[in-house]
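Field reference: sequence -> structure
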Amino acid sequence: MSLEKLVIDNIKRIRKEKRMTQEKLAEACNTATSYIGLMEIYRHTPKISTIEKIARALGVDPIVFFQSAPPPGPEHEAEISRLKDPILSAMEEALDRILRSAPSPGSSGPPKAKDGDAPAAPSDFTDQSCF
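Structure field:
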């Protein structure tokens, strides 16, 4: 990714996270709304002085525009929780199936499957349908 694209993508992402319109950002930076819009579609490259104005308007340090991947913040916690619970449940179910089908100490081989119970198969270890 080019530095120009990185900076512009971060400006746009942070503007949206702060729920600020292009119009409000332009007004806070004393520039035209069309400039912000064209910048966000890579038609204009902001000067350093404009980057500083944008950072002030968004209440961030300008350096954040040059950073690659922002760490997940509170706005991502709900999404992480939503994904985490079904994944953990699927892992617990798979582990339970494996443990139920494992031979007990001192036995000679795996136990027979109960009616309706499928024995653990190698695919249980590679099933990624929950991911």
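Note: The radius of gyration is 26 Å.
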